[in-house]
Structure formats: C-alpha cells, structure tokens
Specification:
Removes the phosphate from trehalose 6-phosphate to produce free trehalose. Its cofactor is a divalent metal cation. It catalyses: alpha,alpha-trehalose 6-phosphate + H2O = alpha,alpha-trehalose + phosphate. One of its GO terms (biological process) is trehalose biosynthetic process. The protein is of the alpha/beta class and 406 residues long. Among the domains are: 119-209 and 216-223 and 304-392, Rossmann fold (3-Layer(aba) Sandwich), CATH 3.40.50.1000; 227-300, 2-Layer Sandwich (Alpha-Beta Plaits), CATH 3.30.70. Helices cover 37% and strands 15% of the residues. The chain has 12 helices and 14 strands. The chain has helices at residues 36-41, 66-78, 83-98, 103-114, 122-129, 158-170, 181-188, 229-242, 270-281, 306-316, 337-346, 375-400; strands spanning 13-14, 53-54, 133-138, 173-176, 194-197, 202-204, 220-222, 250-253, 258-261, 287-292, 295-300, 325-331, 350-354, 365-367. Strand 12, helix 11 (337-346) and strand 13 (350-354) form a beta-alpha-beta unit. Helix 2 packs across helix 9 (270-281), helix 8 runs antiparallel to helix 9 and helix 10 (306-316) crosses helix 11 (337-346). The chain is globular.
C-alpha cells in the first residue's frame, strides 16, 4: 500500500494553510502587469483566511525497476564531478590550449565562445543592463561558498558576505538554494535579502527592509508545497534509517525536500545507495528525485523549481511583465538550469554558470568554480557594485551641474 494518505487532494489546495494570517499571500502565476504586487498584497484570493486556492499539476511519479537504475546511477556520476576530476579537466583544457590544435582545445574554445567569462565580458553585461533594474539571484553552495565534504560546514567567507551585502545595497538580491531557508539564513546572516530555500518552495522576504526591497519584515511570501511537510518528515526518517549502513552517506531535511549527500560515499557504493533510496521512494509516488552535485534531491512532484521561484520573486518586486528589468542569476548546479532557462526564454537578463569545466548549460556566461575565497564570483559582484557607484556618482554630478571628471 502506498502512503498517499498524508497528501491532501490535488485540486483546490489552500496554500495559505502554512502562512501566518498576518502575512499577505501573493498569487501565482502573477497577473501580467507591473502593478501585480499591489493587487497581490491587497487581499487577493478572497477566502476566509486570505488564502489562494490553487490547482496543482503533478509531474509523473518516478518509475523504478532494474532498467531505470543504471541511468539513475549514471546521472549521479554525470551531475557530480569530483574536484579532482574538475581540476584535471581544467588542466587538460589549459594544456590543450598551449599545445597543438586538437579536439580538446577546439571543444573548450567553442564552449568559451558560447559561454564567455562574465568577468572578461563585464563591459558587455553592464552595457546591456543600462536603463534597466538589475535584480540579483544567487545560489549558495558552490557559488557563494566552496563545495565541502560536510554540508553543515559550507560557510561563506566574511569577504564574500561583505560583497553580497554591498550588492544588496545596490540591487534587490535573493538567495535561491536547495537548502532549507533557515539553514541558508544561518549561513548568510544578511537581513536585507530575499531567501528562497528548498529549491524555491519556501520563499521569505527580508527581515530588514531597505530601498531595494518591497516585502514586510519576516513576511512569508510563498510555500507552494506546504501540504507535503508530513510526508517529507516521514521520508527523511525512513531514509535516515535505510542509508545508515552506507558509510559516508548523509541525509539532510531541507523542510520541503530531502537531500541524500553522497560526496563522502565510495563510488563503488553509489549503486547500493541508489537502491536504498529507491526502496524508500517506491512507497511515495507523490515525490520525485533530481540530481545535484554529489546529492540526490527528493522533493514533491509539483511543477515548482528555481526558475518558478525566480519568476515569483520578480513578480513580488513588481517586474512580472516589464521590459526594464535585468535579472542576473549565478549558480553552479544542475538545479540552477531551470532558472537559466527561464531567463533565456524571457529574453531578459542573463544566467552565469559557475564551473571549472565545460558542460551543457542554458547560462549565457561562465565564472570559474569558487576556491577558498570564491574569488571569481566575488570579483564579479564587487565589480558590479563599483560600476553601480560610478553610474550613481556621474548621475549625481549631472544633477548638481558638475561636469564628470574623465
């Protein structure tokens, strides 16, 4: 018997059940106008509790069986290059660039043409953003912090925190992560940001309101999978028990999803770990998996991802269907591709992939994977802040009638 009894009806789910009564609930999909926020915050929904009844479209449940397992394990490998492999790939590409022309050199050069360095093309990026409102979206692990063996030790540096803080003073800024929102907030410790945890299924506004934010302090904006919380907790406990026999496996409860980390698991045991996860999930057809870097993500089968979270946050800020917005999304993981694709489909802003080796992506630009100080990402953020200050300084000079100094 499958355990579907803990899931509410697929039709007419009241999303507001998990939201405090004092918090306005914004509708999604958004009204297609720049004034959507005013309409959404003004009591949209009309229900007794201010909730919005939504019709959820579930994705097809995950199919299991012998034929499905090998592709699953292969996906684990494909989405989880080790630092050693990534470094080797980068070294090989660099060596090829110095050596005689060859397939490796041509492939790397072609990839860099399609996804040039965001630092090298910084002037092109800011030129494209002129006259538009930049909105920043940042992944956490592997983007603001280095990838580490222990996910509880993925701390960002003080320098990176200062850079993100400076960015938030210039542009509306959101952290979009697979981690639970509370965990990301505890890592970042910046009150003026929007946070979209659990792959965008738990979106909160800033604690400290600034000129770049429009949400009330501590406001819960959106939780599209709140009815799955009992199931997620149940699966977390089951996976914790099932995987304890696999050395190095770590199960993390990210509130609206469960992460099974296998960074410290011997690759020879990946297939066994996949079988363990499979044996638990076959009882939960309302859950699906996705693959990240050395992690298996278990989440609800609703059509919601980081791309949907990006669109929701743009709507929250009043840019649902505006031509004068320039979203910039920086991320390193396969789950960030949903956001990259949204930007590409919208024809607005750009995605920046953080990676040390060529791989298929919907991002327009690239940055090298962060080392200890996350140098490339931090450099890009600081250059963006410097450019904004320069533009504001020139505008102020023109306003008071002082000619700019060249």
């Amino acid at each position: 018997m499958t355990k579907q009894n803990v899931v509410m009806s697929e039709m007419g789910i009241a999303v507001a059940a998990a939201v405090p009564a004092s918090s306005p609930l914004l509708t999604y999909p958004p009204p297609r106008s720049c004034s959507a926020v005013a309409a959404g915050a003004g009591g949209a929904g009309g229900g007794a509790g201010g909730g919005v009844a939504m019709r959820k479209k579930y994705q097809a449940p995950l199919e299991f069986g012998p034929a499905k397992m090998n592709p699953w394990v292969e996906s684990m490998r494909a989405s989880s290059p080790t630092h050693a492999k990534a470094a080797a790939a980068l070294a090989e590409a660099a060596a090829a660039a110095e050596a005689a022309p060859g397939a490796a050199k041509d492939e790397y050069a072609a990839w860099m043409v399609r996804h040039p360095s965001a630092l090298a093309k910084f002037d092109h990026i800011v030129k494209a953003s002129m006259g538009k409102q930049i909105v920043m979206f940042l992944d956490y692990d592997g983007t603001l912090s280095p990838i580490v063996d222990d996910p509880d030790s993925a701390f960002m540096s003080d320098q990176m925190r200062a850079a993100v803080s400076d960015v938030a003073k210039c542009f509306p800024t959101a952290i979009v992560s697979g981690r639970c929102t509370d965990k990301v907030i505890s890592f970042v410790r910046l009150a003026e940001l929007y946070y979209a945890g659990s792959h965008g299924m738990d979106i909160t506004g800033p604690v400290k309101v600034s000129k770049c934010t429009k949400a009330q302090a501590n406001e819960v904006l959106y939780q599209p999978a709140s009815e799955f919380l009992p199931m997620i907790d149940e699966v977390y406990e089951a996976l914790l028990e099932k995987t304890k026999s696999t050395p190095g496996a770590k199960v993390e409860n990210n509130k609206f999803c469960v992460s099974v980390h296998f960074r410290c698991v011997d690759e020879k045991r990946w297939s066994a770990l996949a079988e363990q996860v499979k044996s638990v999930l076959k009882e939960y057809p309302k859950l699906r998996i996705s693959h990240g870097r050395k992690v298996i993500e278990v989440r609800p089968t609703i059509k919601w991802d980081k791309g949907k979270a990006l669109e929701f946050l743009l709507n929250t800020l009043g840019y649902a269907d505006c031509s004068d917005v320039f979203p910039v999304y920086i991320g390193d993981d396969r789950t960030d591709e949903d956001a990259f694709k949204v930007l590409r489909d919208r024809g607005q802003g750009l995605g920046i992939l953080v990676s040390s080796h060529p791989k298929e992506t919907n991002a327009s630009y690239s940055l090298q994977e962060p080392a200890e100080a996350s140098i490339c990402v931090m450099d890009f953020l600081l250059r963006l802040v410097e450019w904004k200050c320069l533009v504001q300084g020139l505008a102020k000079r023109r306003y008071i009638g002082v000619p700019p100094q060249m």
